Recover the amino acids of this structure.
C-alpha cells in the first residue's frame, strides 16, 4: 500500500506540472527580481513593470479567458537565495514559467533548476552564457553583451581609436563583458593596452584609473552596473582624465546620470532604444511599443520607464503570446516561445529558434551619449 501511495504521489506531481498552467482558472507566472540590495536599480523597475503589464492584460480580459497571477519574490541579488526561491515558485506555487532573475550571476545559478524541473525561464540578464550554448528551457530578453561590445568597437573603429583600456567589475556580468571585449578586439583591429578589474562594492577606483592614464589608451571601456561605473566616472573627472570614457548597457538608465552627476557628461554607451524613444524616427518598428511603455510607466509610477523594466515587459508579453498561440502546459509554452518570430518589443525585435534563445541582432542597440544630463543618440 505504501509503495502504491508513493508511486501515485509521483504520478500526481507529474500530472500537476503538465496541467498547472490553467489550474484553478488562473495562469501563474513567477518573478525573481532583485528589488532590494545593490542590484535594486535593475530589480525594482523589472518588478514594477511586470506588475503593470499583468494588471493591464487582466483588465483587457486576460489570456484566452484566464487571468494572469504574478508571484514575485525578492532575491536581493543573491544567487543562493534566487535558487531557493526558484524552487519555491516551481514546487509550491506551481508557476507556468519564471521571469528573471535580474543579474547574470543569479541567472546562471537558477538555470540548472529550470532545466531539471522543465520550467520555462526568461532571464532579464545580459550575460551571453545564459543562452550560449542553448539550454532547452532558458530564454532571455536582455540584449547580449556580445552586441553591446560590437556597438562600442564599431564606433571606435570608425573613429580610428584602436588602443583601449578595459576596466570590468569582478562579478558575472563583468566577467562576461570582459570575455567579449577580449574576444572581439581582433575583429575590429582593437588592441587592449590595459586590462584591470574592480570589486562590486569598491568605492574608489583611482588606482586603476591612474594605471590606465599611463597606458597610452585612446579610450576607456568600463563594464559594470551601478554604482561602480558612476564612481569611476567621478574618479576620472577628479584625476583630470581626458580619455573618452565608454560604459556598458548595464547603466543605461537615468539612475546612472543621477549617481554620476556632472561627471556623466560626454560618456557614451550602448543601450536599448527605450531611453531615447522620443528621438526615434516614426519608421522604427519598436517605436509604438516603446512610447506606450514609457507613458504607461510614467502614469503608474511617476518615473521614466527604462531599459531594465523593458526586459520584464518583453518577458511578460512573450509569455502572453506563447500562451495565446497554444501554450497550455510548461512544455508547450516553451515550444511556442521558441517559435516566436518578429516580435517588436522594448529590447528589440525578437526571433527565437532552436539555435537561438536570445533572439536579437545588432538593431537592438543604439549608441547613446550623455548631454546636459539627458540621453542623446550618437550619429
Amino acid at each position: 500500500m505504501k509503495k502504491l501511495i508513493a508511486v501515485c504521489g509521483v504520478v500526481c506531481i507529474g500530472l500537476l506540472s503538465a496541467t498547472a498552467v490553467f489550474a484553478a482558472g488562473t495562469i501563474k507566472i513567477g518573478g525573481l527580481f532583485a528589488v532590494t540590495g545593490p542590484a535594486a536599480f535593475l530589480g525594482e523597475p523589472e518588478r514594477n513593470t511586470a506588475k503593470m503589464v499583468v494588471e493591464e492584460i487582466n483588465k483587457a480580459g486576460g489570456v484566452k479567458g484566464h487571468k494572469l497571477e504574478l508571484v514575485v519574490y525578492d532575491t536581493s541579488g543573491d544567487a543562493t537565495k534566487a535558487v531557493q526561491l526558484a524552487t519555491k515558485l516551481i514546487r509550491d506555487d506551481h508557476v507556468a514559467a519564471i521571469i528573471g532573475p535580474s543579474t547574470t550571476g543569479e541567472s546562471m545559478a537558477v538555470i540548472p533548476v529550470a532545466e531539471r524541473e522543465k520550467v520555462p525561464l526568461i532571464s532579464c540578464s545580459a550575460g551571453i552564457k545564459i543562452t550560449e550554448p542553448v539550454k532547452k528551457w532558458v530564454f532571455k530578453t536582455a540584449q547580449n553583451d556580445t552586441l553591446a561590445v560590437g556597438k562600442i568597437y564599431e564606433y571606435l573603429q570608425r573613429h580610428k581609436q584602436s588602443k583601449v583600456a578595459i576596466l570590468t567589475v569582478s562579478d558575472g556580468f563583468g566577467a562576461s563583458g570582459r570575455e567579449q571585449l577580449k574576444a572581439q578586439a581582433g575583429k575590429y583591429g582593437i588592441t587592449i593596452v590595459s586590462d584591470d578589474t574592480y570589486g562590486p562594492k569598491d568605492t574608489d577606483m583611482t588606482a586603476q584609473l591612474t594605471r590606465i592614464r599611463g597606458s597610452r589608451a585612446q579610450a576607456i571601456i568600463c563594464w559594470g552596473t551601478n554604482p561602480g561605473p558612476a564612481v569611476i566616472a567621478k574618479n576620472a573627472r577628479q584625476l583630470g582624465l581626458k580619455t573618452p570614457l565608454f560604459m556598458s548597457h548595464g547603466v543605461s538608465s537615468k539612475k546612472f546620470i543621477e549617481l554620476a552627476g556632472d561627471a556623466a557628461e560626454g560618456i557614451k554607451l550602448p543601450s536599448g532604444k527605450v531611453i531615447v524613444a522620443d528621438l526615434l524616427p516614426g519608421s522604427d518598428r519598436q517605436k509604438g511599443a516603446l512610447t506606450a511603455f514609457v507613458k504607461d510607466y510614467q502614469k503608474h509610477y511617476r518615473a521614466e520607464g527604462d531599459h531594465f523594466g523593458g526586459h520584464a515587459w518583453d518577458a511578460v508579453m512573450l509569455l502572453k503570446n506563447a500562451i495565446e498561440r497554444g501554450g497550455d502546459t510548461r512544455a508547450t509554452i516553451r515550444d511556442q516561445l521558441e517559435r516566436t518570430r518578429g516580435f517588436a518589443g522594448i529590447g528589440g525585435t525578437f526571433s527565437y529558434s532552436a539555435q537561438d534563445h536570445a533572439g536579437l541582432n545588432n538593431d537592438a542597440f543604439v549608441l547613446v551619449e550623455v548631454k546636459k544630463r539627458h540621453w542623446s543618440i550618437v550619429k
About this structure: Residues 1-20 have pLDDT under 50 and may be disordered. The CA atoms of residues 230 and 259 lie 6 Å apart.
